[in-house]
Amino acid sequence: MTDMTNDIALGQRAPGASAGDFIELLKPRVMSLVVFTGLAGLVLAPGHIHPLIGAVAVLCIAVGAGASGAINMWYDRDIDAVMTRTAKRPIPSGRVGADEALGFGVTLSVLSTLVMGIAVNWTAAALLAMTIVFYVFVYTMGLKRRTPQNIVIGGAAGAFPPMIGWAAVTGGVELPSILLFGLIFLWTPPHFWALALFRNADYTRAGVPMMPVVAGPESTKRQMLLYTLVLLPVAAAPYFVGIAGPVYLAASSLLGLMFVGCAVRVLRATDDGPAKKMFAFSILYLFLLFALMIGERLVVGGGA
């Protein structure tokens, strides 16, 4: 590599970073789903929260998630530089310096946690801090480059937001919020492994031991199918604990069978097409499940 390319790979900033570059550090697409599931926890929780305090709680979840993303980009700048999917991110492309990204992420992490504690409650703040610590230290630094179980264990970080939203209202952790955590936790491996299947060359080149790289595509596909089958009853569970209604139960069952169908098509596939479709559907699947729960609660009301 040239000296300039080496500097970029190490995160040396080229002049001209924009506000948009710092927003990109927050991983806004990932953040949007995190915010939505956190909002769901807040809406589904029994009790009442002032709309302004609720908005602050959701904002803190968003900022905390974005802060985790920025620190993740700082730590992963070396492998991001060699992966096609991530090479244009702000740090490897040289638009934002590594030190700037780290400082940005740490500052937002501290601020989001403190504001959550002071304005909402300290249980929600503790869960938010745990989410950030888990994503940064357990997943990014501890698991991602060491084990094909990185997504399985690390997926817990993305599953905390509905628990945080729930705690913002109730001040505690209860069975329904744990079930919402479990839903996202079990959804995460087939979602990310679908991506890993059609981005296998990228992960291989970067030396990241994703399941398809280590165990091979066929083993990964079988595990994806298993997770979608286990997910069926877990996705139905919100109905049985009283935070979702019959419309949700019927729709979640149908969507779950469609998710299983995607996994079966991936298992039988000889190209990347079904994996790409499953990845796209997995995002829609999770969004629709939480949208249905929110919709039923807002229309019908009731409590857990």
From TrEMBL:
Gene behind this protein: ctaB
TM annotation in the entry: 30-49, 55-75, 96-116, 122-139, 151-169, 175-198, 224-241, 247-267, 279-300
Major site of localization recorded for this protein: membrane
Organism: Azospirillum doebereinerae
First-tier enzyme category under EC: transferase
Keyword GTP-binding set for record: no
Record GO biological process: heme O biosynthetic process
Pfam families, sorted: UbiA
Keywords of this entry: Cell membrane, Heme biosynthesis, Membrane, Transferase, Transmembrane, Transmembrane helix
EC numbers, comma separated: 2.5.1.141
Note: Carbon 2 of the heme B porphyrin ring is defined according to the Fischer nomenclature.
Membrane topology category: Multi-pass membrane protein
Protein name as catalogued: Protoheme IX farnesyltransferase
Source domain of life: Bacteria
One function term, GO molecular function aspect: protoheme IX farnesyltransferase activity
Function statement: Converts heme B (protoheme IX) to heme O by substitution of the vinyl group on carbon 2 of heme B porphyrin ring with a hydroxyethyl farnesyl side group.
Pathway in which the depicted protein is active: Porphyrin-containing compound metabolism; heme O biosynthesis; heme O from protoheme: step 1/1
